[in-house]
Amino acid sequence: MAWENHTRITEFILLGLSTDSKVQAVFFVLFLGIYLQTLMGNLLMLLVISVDFHLHTPMYFFLSHLSFLDICFSSTTVPKLLENLLSQRKTISMAGCLAQAFFLFYTGGTEACLLAVMAYDRYVAICHPLLYGQMMNNKVCKRLLWGSWSIGFLDALLNILLTMNLDFCEEKPIPHYSCELPSLFPLSCSEVSINVTVLLCSSLLHGLASCVLIIFSYTFIVSTILSISSSTGRSKAFSTCSSHITAVLLFYCSSFLRYVMPNSDLLLELIFSLQYNVITPLVNPLIYSLKNNEVKVALRRTLRKYFQCPS
Question: pTM of the prediction?
Answer without folding.
Answer: 0.85
